[in-house]
Amino acid sequence: MTATYSGDDSYAGSSDHISLTVAAPVTAPGAPTGVTAVAGNAQATVSFTAPAGDGGSPVTSYKVTATDHTDAARGGQTATGSASPIGVTGLTNGDSYTFTVTATNSAGTGPASAPSNAVTPSAPGAPSADLAVTVHGPAAAGDGSTFTETITVHNAGPGTATGIATGLNVPWGVTVTSAPEGSRIGPVVYWWDSSLAANATVTHTLTFRVDTWPHYTAAIGVATASSKVADPHPADNVALTTVKLG
Q1: Is omega for the bond preceding 85 within 30 degrees of 0, making it cis?
Q2: What is the spatial distance between Cα 131 and Cα 136, in angstroms, rounded to a whole number?
Q3: Do 100 and 135 belong together in one domain?
Q4: Taking every annotated instance into account, which residue ranges of this chain make up the domain Fibronectin type-III (predicted)?
């Protein structure tokens, strides 16, 4: 930009340059990344990486929000801090939680991060056992034939699981012909195991006979849980397989 004065009888003409710097507009920061959580006693410590872009203004604070996947009504706890990590308190022991993080600068609050890994807070010394269940069987079974589903429950520890109930749904169009040590309640066959040590596995089998009329793909779901010991990763306590009937 140039300012020019042509002059008059008293003053000579002149010109000068004026520099003007235009700053980019400030926006809210991006989402934090790499969010991880470690559970404690009714609390969790959440770590994260600062957003790649701060929107043109330094991040002044971060906010962590908890989501309770066991009972949504017990979630929603928040905590703020100026940097990673941030501790979140007031959680319910035995419930499964994930966490998201937002960043704030002078322009506002940016989008939430992707959720953290799931963690389960527990009291000091409380036993825990990480159960996982799988179910395997054939992809198809013809009219009048029989097929067997194999249910495997594994305990990754660190403690012994007790009072383990494992249930498998019985779809329509098949009849249960064999379920060793299993009991039937309505459309569910279940097995009861008093305990399962860390790193141990128990296997159950169930044999079906296909009726002569159904022709569809049946879904067979199975789930397991320990009634007295917390499970830090409950998502793998459920499994599903399908079999084409007819």
Answers
A1: yes
A2: 17
A3: no
A4: 28-123
Residues 178 and 86 in one domain: no
What predicted TM-score, i.e. pTM, was given to this entire model? 0.52
**Is 154 in the same domain as 240?**
yes
Domain edge (last residue) among 109, 138, 154: 109
Query: How far apart (Å, rounded) are the C-alpha atoms in residues 95 and 92?
Result: 6
Residue 147 within a domain? yes
Question: Residue 185's domain spans which residues?
Answer: 129-245
pLDDT tens across 38-88, in order?
988 999 999 999 999 999 999 999 999 999 999 999 999 999 999 999 999
**204 DSSP assignment:** E
